TrEMBL record:
Belongs to the peroxiredoxin family. Prx5 subfamily. Thiol-specific peroxidase that catalyzes the reduction of hydrogen peroxide and organic hydroperoxides to water and alcohols, respectively. Plays a role in cell protection against oxidative stress by detoxifying peroxides. It holds the Pfam family Redoxin. The active site is at 56 (cysteine sulfenic acid (-soh) intermediate). The keyword Oxidoreductase applies. GO terms for molecular function: thioredoxin peroxidase activity. This is Glutathione-dependent peroxiredoxin. Residues 3-168 form the Thioredoxin domain. It catalyses: a hydroperoxide + 2 glutathione = an alcohol + glutathione disulfide + H2O. It comes from Noviherbaspirillum denitrificans.
Length: 168
């Protein structure tokens, strides 16, 4: 079943490559419970099929980086990018995209969280395995307040401008 507006995010975990060691976070991949990360926060989340893929690299991630200050001005605490890649790949891609400190690059390496959201996209026939559908959503305290799911192969409703326009 696909997640919808009004739903609480499912239980699960995502990984993030941490560049700088700090209290509670070691250098390298760290795994976090989604419920703990979203508690009491307003988070703009967008998901995409894969790191380093053309639309994702040229449009999707750069749009959220460019508008990050406007998201913050509208009360968004964090911006997350989720993809079915491992934390090492997401960390490297985040560095290449200059997303460090702006967009949290969250890894769902085995597509477990993607499946829990009901947003899996089977690209096995193209040699890419199970991926995440392209989407964006606004989450407040773990509850979905806005949700924009793209049709396969499209980039029309999950862009940063659309989600930003949906914020009050």
């Amino acid at each position: 079943m696909t997640i919808k507006i009004g739903d609480r995010l499912p239980e699960g975990a995502l990984s993030e490559f941490i560049e700088v060691e700090s209290e509670g976070c070691s250098l390298g991949p760290n795994t976090f419970k989604v419920s703990e990360l979203t508690k009491g926060k307003k988070i703009a989340v967008f998901g995409l099929p894969g790191a380093y893929t053309p639309t994702c690299s040229a449009k999707h991630v750069p749009g959220y980086i460019a508008l990050a200050d406007q998201f913050k001005a509208k009360g968004v605490d964090e911006i997350w990018c989720i993809s079915v890649n491992d934390a090492f790949v997401m960390g490297a891609w985040g560095r290449d995209q200059k997303a460090t400190g702006i967009v949290r690059m969250m890894a769902d390496g085995s597509a477990e969280y993607t499946k829990a959201l009901g947003l899996e996209f089977d690209l096995t026939a193209k040699g890419m395995g199970v991926r995440m559908q392209r989407f964006s959503m606004l989450v407040e305290d773990g509850v979905v307040k806005q949700l924009n799911i793209e049709q396969p192969g499209k980039f029309e409703v999950s862009n940063a401008e659309t989600l930003l326009g949906q914020l009050g």
